[in-house]
Write a structure and sequence with these properties.
The protein is of the alpha/beta class. It has nine helices and five strands; from the N terminus they run βαβαβαβαβααααα.
Length: 192
């Protein structure tokens, strides 16, 4: 039996048929969102979701929450459920949508783009491991840096969370500009 806080899910094909009647909230970073998002999706990064709660409470339509693969959107749906807001998550996320051959919207040229968070995590973790191994040639204690990253990755897999992604999401290229988030919240309020 599922808890009321367990997110409901929609598969890609079902979501595609119901998309015109849904409000889509993309909880990825602005850079990830700019790289391609579901048609009509509004970008409210997961760490900014609290700011959107008042507008989401007044919203009467069905909410579909998406991210890259589904993990962040599940967390967002749980948070929304804790505040009495019903939402569903897209199984497989934006990646699953694109893999099924469905179009992604992209902003006009000039919009900032960043690597997907998963790619940023892989690059950062790999770089830190290599640095730890290289410095380990100077002194073996530096190998603990690589061991720490390996332990963090195992913990991340076991808990389906990612501390490194949470840290990377704080970098300037992953943060929404205040005007962008304000425009998104205004658009959300109009749809209510």
């Amino acid at each position: 039996m599922t808890s009321p806080l367990d997110p409901r899910t929609l598969d890609v094909d079902t979501a595609r048929t119901r998309l015109p009647g849904m409000t889509v909230i993309d909880v990825r970073t602005p850079g990830e969102y700019a790289a391609g998002h579901l048609p009509g999706a509004l970008n409210v990064p997961l760490d900014q979701l609290d700011r959107a709660l008042p507008a989401l409470r007044r919203h009467y339509g069905e909410l579909l929450v998406v991210c890259a693969s589904g993990a962040r959107s599940e967390n967002a749906c749980r948070l929304l459920a804790e505040h009495g807001i019903a939402a569903v998550t897209l199984t497989g996320g934006t990646q699953g949508w694109a893999e099924r051959g469905h179009e992604l919207d992209r902003p006009a040229s000039g919009a900032r783009r960043a690597w997907a968070m998963e790619r940023q995590v892989r690059f950062t973790a790999g770089s830190v491991v290599l640095v730890g191994l290289a410095l380990g040639l100077l002194h073996p204690a530096w190998q603990l840096l690589s061991a720490g990253i390996a332990g963090g990755l195992v913990f991340s897999a076991l808990t389906n969370t990612c501390g490194m992604a949470a840290m990377l999401s704080k970098l300037p290229h992953n943060r929404p500009r205040p005007a962008e988030l304000d425009a998104t919240l205004a658009a959300l309020a109009q749809r209510g």
